[in-house]
Amino acid sequence: MDWFDRTAPLQLQESYDNSGLIIGDKEQTVNRAVVCLDVDEAVLEYAVKKGADLVISHHPCVFRPIKTFISGSPEGSVLFSAISRGIAVYSAHTNFDSAMGGLGDMICRELGLEEVRPVMPSNAAGPGHGLGRWGMYSNPIPFTGFLKALNGRLGIAAFREVGERPEKVTRVTVLNGAYDKTFLDELLDIRPDVLLTGDLKYHDALMLKHYGIYTMDAGHYQTEKIFVRGLSGMLESAFPNLEILRWEGEDVFRVVSSID
């Protein structure tokens, strides 16, 4: 917890968020941890099978206060299962999104972007933090080359798109997870050749198209699954005696054809 407080301070989280230690005892001993995107029954079963004491997720298993902890409810079943098995759950969500070196920076690094900086800076924990990231290629790359980087480095092979594809890519903005229309003014200042995001709503897409901002909606899961690989590597370096296991899970959405 001290390491997370230094790496992704909780004061960086958004007001609606619930990052930090959600289940567990601060004094309990941890020998093995599982890093995942979402906390569900599947990852808890995996943790039990592997003898893990701690699950570290990006998305909190509880966002809002709940009144019942019965095993049949979506959140209650996870809480009931984790508590009854003695598994602690720690979540690093929007604080890790905003943290310097966090999720947005991981994506930009994989894409080979330079001069990366926050889209919406935050001074809550010092300079370099903030939501969203944007960066540049010192030598513009063909759009086809950008697609290869998306697939090869981030495993993004499918996406929805809005607007006209650029021939060359110089500036890229990354808003991982879900698109937020409050970023529009910043996007108009940055004028990226590509906006990479997820969970894009129809009317927000119309607005982006109107302003000529080419947008790729790769989905929430696809733009954040790198959390597992990225955070696991950081924890392995920081805690060489702690066994770190990885659980990517799978996207809740499936792409299908009505013809099949």
Distance from first to last alpha carbon: 48 Å
CATH architecture of the largest domain: 3-Layer(aba) Sandwich
DSSP summary, beta strand count: 11
Could you list the spans in which at least 5 consecutive residues all have pLDDT below 50?
A: none
> What is the number of helices?
9
Text of the CATH class of the largest domain: Alpha Beta
Task: Please tell me the overall pLDDT.
Answer: 95
Major β-sheet profile: 6 strands, mixed
Task: Give the overall shape.
Answer: globular
- Spatial arrangement of strands, main beta sheet: 5-6-8-9-10-7
By CATH's scheme, which homologous superfamily of the largest domain applies? NIF3 (NGG1p interacting factor 3)-like
CATH names the topology of the largest domain as Udp-n-acetylmuramoylalanyl-d-glutamate--2,6- Diaminopimelate Ligase, Chain: A, domain 1
Which structural class is indicated by helix and strand composition? alpha/beta
Rounded to an integer, what's the Rg over CA atoms?
Answer: 19 Å
Features:
260 residues, alpha/beta, Udp-n-acetylmuramoylalanyl-d-glutamate--2,6- Diaminopimelate Ligase, Chain: A, domain 1, 2 domains, six-stranded mixed beta sheet, five-stranded mixed beta sheet, 9 helices
Structure description:
- This protein is α/β, with parallel strands linked by helices and 260 residues long.
- The chain folds into 2 domains: 20-91 and 224-247, NIF3 (NGG1p interacting factor 3)-like (Udp-n-acetylmuramoylalanyl-d-glutamate--2,6- Diaminopimelate Ligase, Chain: A, domain 1), CATH 3.40.1390.30; 96-217, Udp-n-acetylmuramoylalanyl-d-glutamate--2,6- Diaminopimelate Ligase, Chain: A, domain 1, CATH 3.40.1390.
- Helix 8 (202-210) links the parallel strand 9 and strand 10.
- The protein has 9 helices and 11 strands.
- It has helices at residues 2-7, 41-50, 74-84, 94-98, 103-111, 143-154, 184-190, 202-210, 226-238; strands spanning 20-23, 32-36, 54-57, 88-91, 114-122, 129-142, 160-162, 168-175, 194-197, 215-217, 243-247.
- The termini are far apart.
